[in-house]
Design a protein that fits this description.
By secondary structure, this protein is of the alpha+beta class. It is built from eight helices and four strands. It folds into two domains: 85 residues; 137 residues, no CATH class. Helices cover 60% and strands 11% of the residues.
Length: 236
């Protein structure tokens, strides 16, 4: 009984002699690998044909790798978009005009990044977004005097203090006069700083009462959430 691919046998054999791999022929015609193996077992390839087969195999491997990279990139983009959509959905359900929510967000930020050992409300970071959020909520929630905010920079040895002051003043929308102190890390002498790194900016406001409230608010919130869910964990 003839195979359903019998009419393609001569074409497949010709491609094999031209240096095409079984995988390439299988993909082109949909012929089963077992059938191709039977057709090709008695084919004696010349040295030139073997070289051509090896070359085609390498080309196919490169193409397969490129295809795999494109697939993985597409999957990554899909997962990132799903994360963005999920974040936007959550934000849509939150009232960003609610001062209680904003103060709680500030308290949680302070719990992770804020200073707890000084008699002031202070936070330091190299990430402008963190500092901008801190200032936005602090100013709007507590109606503080911007002129009383003090900013301190921690820089590497090859960074220009005046240039970095101007950068942070512009990015945080604060008066340049608020930037008083600059500390240079002497351990970095002789090493080059990456262009994107602008040092660490410490924002200080001489009001310990705000710090105390933020710390108590963040801790009590955590305890309340944990207590509420503890029974669920135990029952599970």
């Amino acid at each position: 009984m003839k195979s359903k691919w019998y009419e393609l046998k001569s074409k497949a054999i010709e491609l094999r002699k031209q240096g095409f791999s079984m995988n390439m022929i299988e993909n082109r015609y949909g012929i089963a690998r077992s059938t191709l193996s039977g057709w090709f077992k008695n084919i004696k390839l010349t040295l030139a044909q073997k070289r051509k087969l090896l070359q085609n195999s390498r080309i196919a491997l490169v193409a397969a790798r490129k295809k795999a990279v494109l697939w993985h990139n597409a999957q990554k983009e899909k997962r990132l978009q799903e994360a963005i959509d999920g974040a936007l959905k959550t934000l849509k359900s939150i009232n960003l005009n609610d001062q209680n929510i904003l103060e709680l967000a500030l308290a949680m930020l302070y719990m992770g990044e804020g200073s707890k050992k000084t008699d002031e409300t202070a936070i330091g970071s190299s990430n402008p977004l963190i500092l901008k959020l801190f200032l936005a909520i602090l100013i709007n929630t507590y109606n503080i005097d911007i002129k009383k905010i003090r900013c301190e920079l921690g820089l590497r040895a090859d960074q220009d203090p005046e240039k970095m002051k101007r950068f942070w003043a512009r990015i945080l929308k604060l008066p340049l006069s608020n930037f008083k102190q600059v500390n240079i890390d002497k351990r970095t002498v002789g090493s080059k700083t990456y262009p994107h790194y602008k040092g660490v900016c410490q924002i200080r406001y001489g009001n310990v009462a705000i710090q105390r409230k933020l710390i108590y608010l963040s801790n009590l919130f955590c305890q309340k959430v944990i207590g509420k869910n503890l029974g669920v964990w135990r029952s599970g």
